[in-house]
């Protein structure tokens, strides 16, 4: 069985910069996260080109010469192509690059309670999601989600990107509305069921004829 000795080179940021196989040197160009994008040989010829998905799955891989054994991918992590998983550098945990989730949970320190068998959960939204990616973007979104008013339906719908202005426009432009103008009267069923609540919180303005109407919170 042929064994291939590969020497990996890193910079001071722990990013891949090159490797050596069979006394041949190759240079690696990475992004800001350390994911290898381009691999060149010692003559400057492009060997391989890679592009990744949101969670690290290799979307595009172009080999311009014979493919080299280089099992590194997203964020410079060691990739198991059979499992579609990456090994975390610190603890060696398996990370599913298709789902964007760890296969092993990261138990928080707040769960370490010697007096009880059950964990102490102070923040269920944070502590129960043990398989998440612990990055700045996720943490910021989580903080914003916690600040939402869970009792205000309008705030919840607005944060879920429900657009009331498009709904209002579609009703106004329908043939039913044009033929039945009395449905906007205050004693009509449509007004009492929808527009009375809508008008209490929103006002409709038309900036110009080329844009959709905008619903402003009063």
From TrEMBL:
Keywords, comma-separated and alphabetical: Repeat
Domain Teneurin-like YD-shell: from-to ranges: 1-137
Transmembrane helix found in the keyword field: no
Repeat is among the record's keywords: yes
Transmembrane segments annotated in the record for this chain: none
Name of this protein: Teneurin-like YD-shell domain-containing protein
Species name: Adineta steineri
């Amino acid at each position: 069985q042929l064994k291939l000795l590969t020497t990996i080179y890193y910079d001071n940021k722990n990013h891949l910069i090159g490797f050596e196989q069979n006394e041949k040197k190759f240079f690696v160009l990475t992004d800001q996260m350390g994911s290898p994008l381009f691999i060149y040989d010692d003559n400057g010829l492009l060997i391989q080109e890679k592009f990744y998905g949101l969670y690290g799955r290799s979307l595009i891989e172009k080999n311009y010469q014979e493919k080299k054994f280089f099992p590194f991918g997203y964020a410079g992590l060691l990739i198991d192509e059979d499992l579609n998983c990456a090994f975390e550098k610190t603890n060696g945990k398996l990370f599913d690059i298709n789902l964007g989730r760890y296969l092993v949970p990261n138990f928080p320190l707040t769960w370490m309670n010697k007096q009880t068998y059950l964990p102490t959960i102070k923040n269920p939204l944070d502590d129960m999601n043990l398989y998440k990616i612990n990055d700045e973007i996720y943490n910021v979104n989580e903080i914003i989600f916690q600040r939402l008013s869970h009792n205000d339906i309008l705030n919840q719908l607005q944060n879920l990107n429900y657009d009331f202005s498009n709904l209002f426009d579609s009703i106004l432009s329908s043939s039913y509305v044009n033929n039945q103008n009395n449905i906007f009267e205050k004693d009509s069923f449509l007004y009492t069921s929808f527009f009375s609540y809508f008008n209490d919180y929103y006002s409709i303005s038309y900036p110009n004829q080329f844009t959709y109407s905008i619903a402003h919170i009063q």
